Amino acid sequence: MLNFSSLPSEIRQLCRDGKLDTPTPGLALGFVQANLVVLPYSLAFEFLLFCQRNPKSCPILDVTEIGDPEPKIIAPGADIRTDLPRYRIFRHGELIEETTDIRPFWRSDLVAFLIGCSFSFENAMLNSGLPVRHVEEQKNVPMYKTNIECIPTRIFSSPLVVSMRPLPANNIVRAVEVTSRYYKAHGSPVHIGNPEEIGIRDLQKPDYGDAVTVRDGEVPVFWACGVTTQTAIFQAKPELAITHSPGHMFISDLKDEYLTL
Amino acid sequence: MLNFSSLPSEIRQLCRDGKLDTPTPGLALGFVQANLVVLPYSLAFEFLLFCQRNPKSCPILDVTEIGDPEPKIIAPGADIRTDLPRYRIFRHGELIEETTDIRPFWRSDLVAFLIGCSFSFENAMLNSGLPVRHVEEQKNVPMYKTNIECIPTRIFSSPLVVSMRPLPANNIVRAVEVTSRYYKAHGSPVHIGNPEEIGIRDLQKPDYGDAVTVRDGEVPVFWACGVTTQTAIFQAKPELAITHSPGHMFISDLKDEYLTL
Questions:
Q1: Which terminal residue of chain B, N or C, has fewer Cβ atoms less than 10 Å from its own Cβ?
Q2: Contact, A115 vs A134, CB < 8 A?
Q3: Any long-range contacts for B76-83 (C-beta under 8 Å, 24+ apart)?
Q4: What's the complex ipTM?
Q5: pTM of the model
Q6: Chain B residues closer than 8 Å to A151 by CB
Q7: CA–CA dist B142, B253 (Å, integer)
Q8: Which residues of chain B from 11 to 70 reach within 8 Å of chain A, CB to CB?
Q9: Strand partners, B235
């Protein structure tokens, strides 16, 4: 049976067997979960360059060989076509389908990018006694488009998308210290305090995910978010792109500590 | 006149005017110097992926747009075709020419990669009171091919090339601490102690650079080295590749501190 201490390979097998179709937060706690982006090889350089130029939003953990669905570095033996609980298929930037198995869409010219995710630093925050509000409230993290532009490439550009966690003022320095170590999982915050300075009008109306309670005296703290890649794909409108469905991540064999300096 | 406190832009201008053709260690101290690799766009994804998979050897600082010689991120306004003191031209992996101006070789399909260099962490070592033997002895750093294989891509593979600095045993922990912060300039060592464990037979016979004195009681400490990219190019034999000449680096507008976490 599935439980919080299941191994990554057990969870991937359940996905592969069609027996798991839920969001992955809390599963295989302590192991690195990853965002997935699949693109044709013709766009692979430009996308890898976009990630290289914007490493806080898009920290690359693994890139598969052309046509090969196995992420050999972070999960040897896994198959990214079947081992995530749920996927989204985009044609020319438009979401056309959600599915639990992308083998029907697979092609010999596709390349998969696995990208670090905030779950890794949230575990570290919780282990350090820092509150993570959306976990307390059992919600998805609130995410917002900002007025900060990512460094573009010829083909990919995007506003920086951030996630927000409210913290008591006396927890902020510790949160910066704890999360900055996880430089392959978005690392330190990109902004602390006034949302309007980065173009966010209303914290209670996130562009993605759920609003969470911000208590009196708490300060909103913002981290770069992997959803930035999906905005970049929406703007570039490639003929085919495949991603995980929000919250339905790939669970790798790496321990969170691997993502730190 | 050129001196140790010259600005990067002044040194680049001297190169551009054909007035500087010397190695760059010690110039514009405190500013980031970079390895240069120029390749056709057709190989750009595979090379960027090789660097992404081997970040300790090949930490990417900037990648120019196809056909554009300006490294917009680390030195806006610079021209990598003229602003280094000396270059090497390779055809099918063979060195065919050294030159001080690569404009005659430039093509609209070329991409330039700027890669972090050990000068940044050596400055930090010296500032921390750690000895850097080849600097004391006014030599080039000794470099060795190891029996450690880089993570390959379909096209690029290479043994890891390392540089070596001998240290008194009671300096080693501090050297790890100081250099590990510079994760975009090779970061922490890859090996401490017995050279034979990583396939090095004789410290006094480096594969590149100069041998340095290793005193009684000193321990050899090895860091990943950017020359790894040149070995990878030698093995891949691209129809055209251009690099800096050893020690003749590109001087960027970034301060060393930019390369730290």
A1: N
A2: no
A3: B76/B253, B77/B9, B78/B9, B78/B12, B78/B250, B78/B252, B78/B253, B79/B16, B80/B36, B80/B38, B80/B112, B80/B114, B80/B250, B81/B106, B82/B15, B82/B16, B83/B12, B83/B13, B83/B15, B83/B16, B83/B250
A4: 0.89
A5: 0.93
A6: 73
A7: 27
A8: 41, 44-45, 48-49, 52-53, 60, 63, 65-66
A9: none
Whose structure tokens read 């059992």? Answer: A138
* B116 contacts B225 by C-beta, under 8 angstroms: no
| CA–CA dist A10, A1 (Å, integer) | 9
Residue found under tokens 């404009």: B103
Of B54, B52, B156, B117, the closest CA to residue A51 belongs to B52
A2: confidence class by pLDDT, cuts 50, 70, 90: low
Chain segment A171-208, per-residue pLDDT in tens: 999 999 999 999 999 999 999 999 999 999 999 999 99
Tokens 């198959």 appear where?
Answer: A79
Q: Check whether A1 has a pLDDT greater than 60.
A: no
Determine how many CB atoms are found less than 10 A away from the CB of residue A172.
17
* Residue range A64-86, pLDDT digits in tens: 999 999 999 999 999 999 999 99
A155 touches chain B (CB under 8 A): no
3-state DSSP assignment of residue A251: strand
Task: Give the Cα separation of A173 and A188 in Å (integer).
Answer: 10
